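User: Could you write out the 3D structure of this protein bound to pyridoxal-5'-phosphate? I've included everything you need below.
Assistant: Certainly. Input first, then the structure.
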Amino acid sequence: MKGTQHMDQFTPKTMGQQFGRRSWAEPWKIKMVEPLRMISREQRQKVLVEAGYNTFLLKSEDVYIDLLTDSGTGAMSDRQWAGMMLGDEAYAGSRNFYNLEAAIQTYYGYKYIVPTHQGRGAEHLLSQVVIQRGQFVPGNMYFTTTRLHQELAGGTFVDVIVDEAHDPQSLYPFKGNIDLDKLEALVQREGAQNIAYVSLAGTVNMAGGQPVSMANVKALRQWSNQYGIKVFLDATRMVENAFFIQEREAGYADKSIAEILCEFCSYTDGAWMSAKKDNLVNIGGWLAVNDPVLFEELRNLVIVFEGLHTYGGLAGRDMEAIAIGIAESVQDDHVRSRIGQVRYLGDLLSAWDIPMVLPVGGHAIFLDARRFYSHLPQDQFPAQTLAAELYLDSGIRSMERGIASAGRDPKTGDHYYPKLELTRLTIPRRVYTQAHMDVVAEAVRAIYEERERTHGLKMVYEPKYLRFFQARFEQL
Ligand SMILES: Cc1ncc(COP(=O)(O)O)c(C=O)c1O
């Protein structure tokens, strides 16, 4: 496979695999540190009220351990920082663009590349070009920014993920899979010409970082070929998805992450990417397609919203860091330790019977706020409450992924009531140690013990778009 054979020499087995001892350790050592600050409980109470009980509105200097997101919060390597110094800040035709293009072609296998400032820039362009007003966009569970751009382009998102994804206790190994019967029913009901494309994400963020199997994407490709429907991939955490395929799917145990990634992408027509996750950078995104006609349109539109097609809103140095980050991200030992750390936290919490989404997914622990605060109805924002309580207890910042994130149905104006009401403890890549995970686990246990005395929240300010980012709450 193009560009992947040479990776093998860089992916030696871990000590655990060689000797049957510990299964993973971080494949790096720390060269620079950033001190953490801890404020008192009284100060946390004050800033939490000022932030309207919304963890997005806290100042980061008031946070002790920041598990808000894995987006743009990772640590870059010494190679990436060295690459930043090689930034070619030309307006047009920067050498760093060509390095980025080559990295995406090599590791993801797509032909044509459009850089964007971050993932939603790519979602915007793709939605505007590929969706016609009134069309449907089926996908394996919504994602906030993705669905909004699909709706702004006149599309209607339809959830066609397997039922197991909506059940936090189901141990199904590929809870990100698309249910092809649901997809077929949609086509029978609405007609293939009214389907813009299939919006496939690997892994599925809102379901708890759950993977899609290779068998599922292959079957999806066959299905979509009969109708001439395109499949576009949200590749934001596709490297992590490849790890689960390697671990769980027959026939992939001896394939490298790089090989699995490239094979998976080959069943899709293109991808959009928030490089701030898998690609190990603090800012950036891209769009990649195989169809030259579609590419022409995208590369023209990017100039309107992001910048010329050889920088798309990014500095040359940022593109260089992404190119290097892509090669680092597909190293087997990197992915193993990244997911190993998430699992370490998951195992601690499971041992204390803390309710959460199982199996533990790729990038985060998703606490099941419905069961955590079983006395709170969903319109008292249990997941938002949990995020606020965790901050108050220990200065740990997490994020709501429940009714506030789901927003409102643009047609009826009612809240969407998602089955999953989750609080996400998102682990940044290469940033925290196992000792930090111990502190987090103890804090979650402490608020779990106090759960029956916890009050819910009411929303007192609701912005029009993506309300969870800026909404304000008061305690009931
Ligand atoms: C699955 C998924 N898709 C798309 C995005 C949007 O990317 P960005 O935040 O870079 O705009 C994100 C990040 O929040 C994401 O998690």
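The CA atoms of residues 217 and 269 lie 12 Å apart.
User: Perfect, thank you.
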